[in-house]
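Propose amino acids for all 122 sites.
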């Protein structure tokens, strides 16, 4: 993984999460803003998948558990899609809060993936 890209992902996911939680608690239903924030997080995760595939061939192999890393990454990629589907099926203010919780969870998961990749803590 690339440290600066990880930091960008964590900041974007945390900002999207806080935005969605605030919008949801303010009574806003899922909208283009809240769903768009999760789409941005998803696009960054897809880029992370590409980076994770290419990095070992470029001389940046993981030092931790590869299985644990990929489990985190696949789970993180699936979470925004599940959250958006939930938000579109149940269009309430709590769906917007759920989008925020999903984004905040992804911020934590991405940082954990960085730790697994670089420090080898398993």
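Proposal:
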């Amino acid at each position: 993984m690339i440290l600066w890209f990880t930091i960008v992902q964590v900041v974007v996911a945390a900002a999207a999460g806080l935005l969605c939680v605030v919008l949801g608690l303010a009574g806003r239903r899922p909208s283009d803003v809240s769903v768009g924030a999760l789409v941005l997080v998803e696009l960054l995760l897809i880029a992370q998948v590409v980076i994770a595939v290419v990095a070992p061939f470029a001389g940046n192999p993981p030092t931790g558990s590869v299985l644990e890393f990929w489990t985190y990454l696949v789970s993180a990629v699936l979470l925004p899609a599940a959250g958006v589907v939930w938000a579109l099926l149940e269009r309430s203010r709590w769906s917007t809060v759920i989008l925020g919780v999903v984004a905040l969870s992804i911020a934590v998961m991405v940082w954990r993936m960085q730790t697994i990749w670089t420090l080898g803590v398993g």
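The radius of gyration is 15 Å. DSSP finds four helices and no strands in the chain.
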